[in-house]
Amino acid sequence: MKVLVAVKRVVDYNVKIRVKSDNTGVETANVKMSMNPFDEIGVEEAVRLKEAGKATEIVAVSMGPQACQETIRTALAMGADRGILVLTDAELQPLAVAKILKVLCDKEQPGLVILGKQAIDDDCNQTGQMLAALLDWPQATFASKLELGVSDARVTREIDGGLETITVTLPAVLTTDLRLNEPRYASLPNIMKAKKKPIDTVDPASLGVDVAPRLSTLKVNEPAKRQAGVKVATVADLVAKLKTEAKVI
Amino acid sequence: MQPYHAPLRDMRFVLYELLGADRQLSALPGWEEVTADLIDPILDEAAKFCREVLFPLNRSGDEEGCRFENGVVRTPKGFKAAYDLFRQGGWTGLMAAGADGGQELPRLLGQMVSEMICSANLAFGIYPGLSQGAYAALAVHGDEALKRAYLPKLASGDWTGTMCLTEPQCGTDLGLIRTRAQPQEDGSARITGTKIFISAGEHDLADNILHLVLARLPDAPKGIKGISLFLVPKFVPGPDGRPGRPNGVACSAIEHKMGINASATCVIHFDDATGYLVGEPNKGMRAMFRMMNEARLAVGIQGLGLAEAAYQGAVAYARERQQGRALGKPSRPDLPADPILVHPDVRRMLLTIRAKTEGARALAAWVALEMDKAARGGDRARREETEDLAALLTPIIKASFTDMGFEAANLGVQVMGGHGYIREHGMEQLVRDARITLLYEGTNGVQALDLIGRKLTAHGGRFLRRFFHPLDAYLAAKAGDPALAEFVQPLAKAFGRLQQASAAIALQGLKNPSDAAAGAADYLRLFGLVAMGFQWARMAETALAALAEGQGGEADFYQAKLATARFFMARLLPECGALLATVAEGGKTLADFPDRAF
């Protein structure tokens, strides 16, 4: 079975995010970028499937400027077999990404597509669901456990009330949650091998996808600074404030 | 505690912008693939590993330390798992030959990865670090059978190495070694003696430990000319190559130390232990010196790593901690006090650490790249030139970088005030860990004597010219450049002082060697400053060029480089004047002081 994994290049999770001075977005120039952590979990899961003999090939897909190639190389160093870079400088919103992935799935015919449940930059949490709808495939989102069968997959999902276990028929779309696995460190020999693995470059137009944004960003602001707290004298004061001011109890 | 983040931007500046290392390395045979798109992911992954795996074990490893129970050494919690990850990740074989299962990557890259390891967890780094030294000695001096049997195990990290030199009566003066070697009919030898201060001498990280032991054959000449090198495995490998019967090697104690508490420093007894000669009989010092020179450069990098860690911790604290007001106008009127970063003395300390650290990183990288180029290309003359340069700069890198690491950690404590002295912020550990680097692999005093006694005098000053000529040529080429004048002029002045000091040392050496020895440490410090200053001028030039090309997005980075270069030239390099005065004074005030008055 072929597994397709989507990997997004985002601002590294260690970086303190700064809003651009003109409020048009987040500062990404000269900021350390790396693979979206949820996508890293996706790559790890795919590699484990391959190591268990359940997957035969892993294709890592990324979209954006040329630098996204580095993110694909990271996936290749973790164990993916080849990459597809969809090269574009356009702003990509979840629907456009889902449409591109749909075309790639039509071409590649994977048995399973794995995406992060969301990317840590825009936190959209939409692409996997949209892709499943476009493909008309089952979706198993927020996965914390995957047991892959021949024609179906048993997936444990993290939901508000706890854990839910479902079975989806393949092919299917899976989105990863934090506890699905702990991604490995790429080994030095694999980093070196990754350089020689193939990456195909395509562009949205050649795939016949219109990526023009459907939403426009009006303004991006820093979150409001946290206000200084107050000390309360007694527990009774605290309860009163929680009731009357915070209105949480 | 401030988490460690590898200075990747500065490393890339040095690699690509200052040295053009990607271009130069990928032009060499076998390293065609060593371009930025390979170097970057390697550095990135090493940085991640150091941050996420090694750094979190630094404090706990220090608190817990190694434990010695019934002849067995237990490393602190988490060290074995971290070492397994490190080994499985292939990091132990970064520079090892492909034939031994290594990755055969350039020294320059290995050195940058080492810096990160030393910043994150020096005590951990000592275990694989010693294996690397053992690998180097064995690869050059071992016979084919030894190499085949042992090099792949060192490259994979399955087994680790040690250097067994020191004995209770024998430290710096290796001529005093007593450990004996009795040749056997099968070509092996039986080794008997006691070695102390053996780092990684016994531990639970690997299946076997390979001791490289200096010992005397029965009819060996007295002193240093009668010493041979032997490989003594903890377990003698069986015919299948796996660790077999226990050898006559036992650890009887570990030292209780000031720092690097997670590194096991062992007393090792050899009792009729089976050993194998490495290199020729009575020529052990040659092989050991190869290992020693590797180790001295590696210890210099430890100093660099510690200085970087100290900088990061001190800066984070200075940004957060609010005390007092800036002497002019408040920088943060909205707060009850300004961050201590505003105070000139705090800035002086932070910039001192930073300017030396970045200067040292560039200097070490330059030397490593030259060594890589000589190893893979160039003719014999070229190789000789590079060997000369490395030989000259090895004691300087060892001593001046470790002085720097210790100074940086102390300044880091000073920036934090009392909060640096308590354990919570991790800075006092850096002071304690750094302290050993000035001592092992030859104290910094011994490095200074090596510099003036061996390196300066070798081949009529030939080594010295390998550094003086490129610096001279650089100064001559840039003398007329007004944009560089603020960097080149102070450097030229400091270089003049170094030349004067070199002449003074040479003259003292002829007339009265004690005079030269008295100024040796100051001379080495002076040399280190000029060597860093050379790199600072070149870095300033590189930064100016980048700004002129309109690297607008990163203007802050290059401006900071220039500002640091200015600080180095204006506030650190002038020390050369004082150092020259001390060197020129000679040793009279030391010699005249009566022994009984001490």
Can you offer a commentary on this structure?
With 249 residues, chain A is an alpha/beta fold. Chain A has a single domain, classed as HUPs (Rossmann fold). Helices cover 27% and strands 26% of the residues of chain A. Chain A contains six helices and eleven strands. Chain A has a nine-stranded mixed β-sheet with strand order 9-8-7-10-6-1-4-5-11, with helices on both faces. Chain A has a two-stranded antiparallel sheet with strand order 2-3. In chain A, helix 2 links the parallel strand 4 (57-64) and strand 5. The longest helix of chain A has 15 residues, at 37-51. Chain A is globular, with a radius of gyration of 21 Å. The relative contact order of chain A is 0.18. The model of chain A has no long low-confidence stretch (mean pLDDT 95). In chain B, helix 6 (107-141) packs antiparallel against helix 8 (284-320) and helix 10 (380-416) packs across helix 12. Chain B has helices at residues 8-18, 21-26, 36-54, 56-64, 79-88, 107-141, 144-156, 284-320, 344-376, 380-416, 418-421, 427-435, 444-455, 462-478, 485-511, 513-518, 520-548, 555-572, 575-585, 588-591; strands at 67-69, 72-74, 159-164, 180-183, 189-199, 208-215, 228-233, 235-237, 243-246, 249-254, 265-278. The longest helix of chain B has 37 residues, at 284-320. In chain B, strands 3, 4, 5, 6, 7, 10 and 11 form a seven-stranded mixed β-sheet that branches. Among the domains of chain B are: 8-141, Butyryl-Coa Dehydrogenase, subunit A, domain 1 (Orthogonal Bundle); 160-283, Butyryl-CoA Dehydrogenase, subunit A, domain 2, CATH 2.40.110.20; 460-589. Chain B contains 20 helices and eleven strands. With 598 residues, chain B is an alpha+beta fold. Helix content of chain B is 58%, strand content 11%. The interface between A and B is medium-sized, with 19 and 25 residues.
